[in-house]
Structure formats: C-alpha cells, structure tokens
Amino acid sequence: MGRKVAIEPVTRIEGHARVTIHINDDGKVEESYLHVDQFRGFEKFSEGRMYFEMPVITPRICGICPVSHHLASVKATDRVAGVTPPRPADLLRRLLHKGQMVQSHSMHFFHLASPDLLLGFDADPAIRNVAGLIEVDPGLALKAVKLRKYGQEIIRRLSGRRIHMHWAVPGGVATPLSEEDRDWMLSQADEMIGYIQDGIQIAKSWLEANQEIVNKFANFPSNYMGMVQDDGALELYEGKLRIIDKNGKFINEFENTQYLDYIAEHVEDWSYLKFPYYKPMGWPNGVYRVAPLGRLNVASHISTPLANEEFKKFKALAEGPVEPSLYYHYARLIEDLYCMERIVELCEDEDILSDDIIDTNVQITGEGVGCIEAPRGTLWHHYWTDENGQITKVNLIVATGNNNWAMNHSVNLVAREFVDGNNLTEGMLNRVEAAIRCYDPCLSCSTHALGQMPLIIDIVNSEGELLQEFRRD
Ligand code: MG
Ligand code: NI
After folding, report:
1. For a Cys staple, 171 with which of 359, 397, 400, 451, CB 3.0–4.6 Å?
2. CATH of the domain spanning 85-162+175-218+323-360, picked from 1.10.645.10, 1.10.10.10, 3.40.50.300, 1.20.1260.10
3. Residues, CB within 5 angstroms of ligand 2 (ion)
C-alpha cells in the first residue's frame, strides 16, 4: 500500500498551490504533482466591458504583479484601438516595466530565495526567512528593502500608485515624467546597481560551492522560450519570441501577436492550470521553460554592458543551455542588473521628459494581442471586441502557466532525489518547495484569483487517509 504526501500550499512563493507526493510501501517516491486551483472567471468576467477599461480591470487579477497585467493589457488595447503610442510614451511604459522587474526580482532573491541559500535548506523554518536573514546579515536585509522600495517608487512616481494603476492608456500614458522624478531615479541608480551586484556575488558563490546539490536538484533538459530584440539581445517589453531546443539549437522565432499559431495549452484533469507548449512539436515534446533561465538561454547577448559581462559568465557555464533550476536565481539577478542599467538609459533618453505621450486617433480594429515578458515569464492578453470596442472574448496566458510543466517536473525530480517516505523531515519538504521557488511562480495570477492564500502541508496515504499535516502560515 503506497502513501501520498501532500504539500499545500507552498510557502515563500506567491499565491496558492498543493503538492502531492505519492510514496510506495518501501517509502520511495513514485510520482509527484503540483496542483494549482485555477479560478478562470476573469476571462468571462471581462466580457461586455469596454476595451479601454481592461488596463484598469486586469491589474486586479493579481496583487503581486499588477504592472505586468497593466502593460500587457494596454498593449492589447493599443491594437484594438488602432493607435500607436508616441516614442516618449513607449519609453515611459518601458520604464514602468523595469521598475516592476527590479522590485519583483530583487524581492524574490533577497526575501524568498536567499534564506535557503544563506541559512540552509534544513535550517529551522522559524528562522529560515527574512527575519533569520536580518539576524545573520542585517546589511543584506537592508539592501533588499531598499531595492524593493526603489522599484516601487518608480512605479509610484510614474503611475501615481503602486497597484491598481490607471496610467497606461490606449495610445500612450496619462501623465509625463517630471524632471524631479527622473532626477530622483537617476540619483539612486548606482547604489541599486551595487546592491544587485552584491546579490550576484552571493548567488554565484553559493552555486559554485554547492555544485553537487545544484547538479542533482531539478537539473533537466527542456526547450526554452523568451523574447528577443531583432539582433537576438534579451528583450522584456516588445519583440519576437524565440524558441530553442534542449541542445540550444534554434527552433523558431515568431511574432508575439501570432502566438495562437505556435502555442497550445494541454489540460490535465488533476490541475486547473493549463500546460502551454510549442504547438508544432506537439505535447509533450513541445514543453519549454520561460522566465529568467529561459530568457537568458535563448538570448545571444544583453544590450547593457554590466549585465552583458555577467551574461557571458552565465553562458560559459554550459556548452548548450544552462539546465539546473537553481540557476534561475543567478539568471534572475542578471536580468535585475539589466533592468537597472535600462532604467538609467531610459532616464537619460532625450525624449523621456516629453509630454508627447498619447495618440488619440482611435480606429477600432476589433482585436488586439499584448505580450510582454513579465518577471515570471511570457504573458499574453488577447481581446476581441465588437465594432464599438465592447469586449466579446478574452484569452489570457499567464507567465507562471508557461512554467507549469517545468515546475511539475522539478517537483517530481526533487522529491525522488531528496524525499524519503520512511524518514520524512521538514528539510526534505522544503527542498520540494525550493524547486518550485526557483520559478518564482505567481499563483495569484495563475489562479486568476485575488490576493494570497494560507499554507498547509499534508501527508496522505494511497487510500486518501491523512497521515500527517504540516501547516505554515
Ligand atoms: Mg487562458
Ligand atoms: Ni501575478
């Protein structure tokens, strides 16, 4: 008679999930699943709204990454309305996006990921968190707070709010950037770049010192997908999507608006979250990984100097793609550095203070796709409207969904490697969580539900009997 270990929900990730680990009579892990309880009401709920309401409504999908939805949404509405934002508006939206990336990536590494690295997977969970970090390295914890605050300040100074913004509008943005706010952003930049570089050193030295664990920990081949500029450089806001195979061989590059020709979604009855895959290769051969590791694996270089220096070191780690999931943390910080450098470039652009920020020449086209690289991966908003711009249909593919297969596979590999059903420890279960945490999933988004939910870990036998329950709030 086998047993089932359920971890629900997972801690130090955003949102709600349940992990079930099936254990056989010998205490060996047979199979593991990450379940996400998706609430798919949002797409339906939007029908009947006017297209221009969508950038205001959709940030409410998620309290964690409202900016990503705001921007993907507004790009979709540009196309619905047949308008093209003037260059200054495009720059300002990119600046907002980079602010969001810096706050999200920095918070993830310093607050959510680094406790495992700096305190250890087996550390007492009571101290394996930010409070524990403050104990061992108060300076580092302070840097984390400052980085997050800086990103949030960019968002607030541009949009007037940290969440539920009403700033990017079809055809542009509602308000320009003031000289004072631009100067403030620039004045902090060197300090923030230094903090991220400190984070990179921490991540790199941990990965180097723990190669044995890293190579056993959710290390597997896959395809990869991410946005690139025309010359193959890393891109996060607008560009083609490039997909490569497990050997690093180029498979395709396609317009992000044409995603329906290339991306399909597989359904499993044990999870409400769908499994996107690259359609021409079919399921399951077409599964891929997105977000920092995916994006750096597909990119040929980075357009900013400091991040590109680090990118070269990242590329030198492997002949083909970098595969161990723990390298997501390093890749995430390289992107963080890139975003800081881009913030400086954008602030120094001669058009950034311009008040030519909107195209109001609306000609309803009836359809629009908006795609961006959110912190957690490729995000699509797709709207169809009637001739008046009233929404008739919505399709969203959320960033975290793109890594659904990869997170499941990672959970499975880590559970098999580290979990012993006869001698279960909290540290083993934490490793399973850490596998998911590499991907920084936003389960608020995936579930299209509001806010965050509480945390439980269950151990259940094959007959569904609860053997043990771990509850963490
Ligand atoms: Mg959908
Ligand atoms: Ni989210």
Report:
1. 359
2. 1.10.645.10
3. 62, 64-65, 442, 444-445
